[in-house]
């Protein structure tokens, strides 16, 4: 998020001075790191939680279409960045990887059948395939079908337009470009306090992470793109807009294999239904990952618990966030989400063997010794109004001088559209003047692709060619 915003601002206002602070020794090592997330280019092609059932039991495609629209903007912006030399060759950060959904049991098969019927004629979902035929699904993803029980109801959808994205590489490349073009990128510097000044600016107090040397600068605008840590910095800023917010940290683990014999049998990101009580970010999926040119498979995530808001955070994070204005909401979340707590406890008790047994629901023939356990990134789910919120949202001051990002999924996949919205909200006096330049970067800005078959087809084909994607 910070890399995207910094790059947009630098392209729009190269005369502005921009400083970026990173508390670690390198950028992109928390949630953006390749192994800390699934690398899914989230476009709602395979994620069932983006088409929820309503009270009348019908499915709603609104969120799926909105997320797909956002991801098309991501593809357009990345294409423009490649063309301008801001990003390296597309294969260094994005690769074609079909997105599939695979379900078992009559209830889930009926759900997927209805979902396919809902989406197949939507322009942004053109080309989606559906099958209940084991021979067809075997061609799509052989590892799913080996030694599958006869008579077991199952179904799958497949979208060839899916992608695998290395968000760590993307983040590093954007910051490298910024650093080479006059932006002051300070690693090993931790922002400690944000204090509003009488003239409306912000005093940013920081310290060197190693030498503990303190420092401060004044800024007319501050963006807090610090993952789970954003909540605490925004609380410290004193802006009233952060009142009522809290975070519930959820960690994760992956099973990973790089065995070529196994990897060659699976080229897709395959999502399924989440277990009862599991948060949407814990939907099980078996993914092809391409990192530094090497293909691997990841399965998970398996939920873990840590009180930290960042993977390299502090053990007291979950306690030090508590304020009088969010305590009631947080307690309500605790009392009304017993199924989530039960799910987390059951996940924590799983051994490596039990985790592999869970994987066998996807791939019946896998063996324990072929898979290693990796620690995924830390997610800080937003709590507000007594509810856990599973989206991504901007929290900004009324005058637009400071903003931060809270939440998790769909996260990095939709960073461009989220940061474009932030520009509109926080820079109202400049935005109109920026629109022509933004239109050059994102040609379909301001349009709804899903309302126009020809426009959707043209835009997706254009970015597929620019990003060297096969679909």
Automatic annotation (TrEMBL):
Q: Name one GO molecular function term.
A: L-malate dehydrogenase (quinone) activity
Protein name, as recorded:
Probable malate:quinone oxidoreductase
The alphabetized UniProt keywords are:
FAD, Flavoprotein, Oxidoreductase, Tricarboxylic acid cycle
Can you state which reaction this protein catalyses? (S)-malate + a quinone = a quinol + oxaloacetate
What EC number(s) is this enzyme filed under? 1.1.5.4
Question: What cofactor is needed?
Answer: FAD
| Lineage of producing organism | Bacteria, Bacillati, Actinomycetota, Actinomycetes, Micrococcales
Return the PANTHER family for the record: L-2-HYDROXYGLUTARATE DEHYDROGENASE, MITOCHONDRIAL
UniProt signal peptide: none
InterPro entries this protein is in? FAD/NAD-bd_sf, MQO
As for family, the record states: Belongs to the MQO family.
Does this UniProt record's set of keywords contain Oxidoreductase? yes
Q: In which pathway does it act?
A: Carbohydrate metabolism; tricarboxylic acid cycle; oxaloacetate from (S)-malate (quinone route): step 1/1
């Amino acid at each position: 998020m910070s890399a995207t915003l910094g790059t947009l601002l630098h392209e729009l206002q190269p005369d502005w001075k921009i400083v970026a602070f990173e508390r670690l020794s390198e950028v992109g090592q928390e949630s953006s790191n390749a192994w800390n997330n699934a690398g899914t280019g989230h476009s709602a092609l395979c994620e069932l939680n983006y088409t929820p059932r309503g009270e009348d039991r019908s499915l709603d495609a609104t969120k799926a279409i909105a997320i797909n629209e956002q991801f098309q903007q991501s593809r357009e912006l990345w294409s423009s960045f490649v063309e301008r030399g801001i990003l390296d060759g597309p294969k260094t950060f994005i690769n074609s990887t079909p997105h599939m959904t695979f379900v078992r049991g009559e209830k889930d098969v009926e759900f997927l059948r209805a979902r396919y019927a809902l989406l197949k004629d939507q322009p942004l979902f053109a080309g989606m395939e559906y099958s209940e035929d084991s021979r067809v699904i075997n061609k799509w993803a052989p590892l799913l079908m080996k030694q599958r029980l006869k008579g077991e109801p199952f179904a799958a959808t497949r979208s060839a337009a899916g992608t695998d994205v290395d968000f760590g590489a993307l983040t590093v490349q954007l910051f490298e470009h910024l650093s080479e073009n006059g932006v002051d990128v300070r690693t090993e510097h931790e922002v400690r306090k944000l204090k509003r000044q009488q003239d409306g600016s912000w005093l940013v107090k920081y310290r060197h992470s190693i030498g503990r040397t303190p420092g401060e600068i004044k800024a007319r605008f501050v963006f807090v793109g610090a993952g789970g840590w954003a909540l605490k910095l925004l609380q410290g800023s004193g802006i009233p807009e952060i009142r009522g917010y809290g975070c519930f940290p959820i960690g994760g683990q992956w099973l990973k294999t790089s065995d070529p014999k196994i990897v060659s049998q699976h080229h897709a990101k395959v999502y399924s239904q989440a277990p009862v009580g599991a948060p949407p970010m814990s939907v099980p999926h078996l993914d092809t990952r391409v990192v530094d040119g090497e293909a691997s498979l990841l399965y998970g995530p398996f939920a873990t618990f840590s009180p930290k808001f960042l993977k390299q955070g502090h053990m007291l994070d979950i306690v030090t966030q508590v304020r009088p204005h969010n305590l009631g909401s947080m307690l309500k979340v605790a009392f009304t989400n017993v199924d989530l707590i039960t799910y987390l406890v059951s996940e924590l008790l799983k051994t490596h063997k039990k985790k592999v047994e869970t994987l066998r629901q996807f791939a019946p023939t896998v063996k324990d010794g072929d898979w290693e356990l990796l620690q995924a990134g830390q997610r800080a789910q937003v709590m507000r109004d007594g509810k856990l919120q599973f989206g991504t949202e901007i929290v900004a001051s009324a005058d637009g001088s400071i903003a931060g990002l809270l939440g998790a999924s769909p996260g990095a996949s939709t960073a461009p559209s989220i940061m474009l919205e932030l520009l509109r909200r926080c820079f109202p006096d400049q935005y109109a003047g920026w629109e022509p330049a933004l239109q050059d970067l994102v040609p379909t800005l301001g349009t709804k692709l899903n309302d126009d078959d020809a426009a959707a087809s043209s835009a997706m084909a254009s970015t597929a060619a620019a990003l060297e994607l096969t679909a």
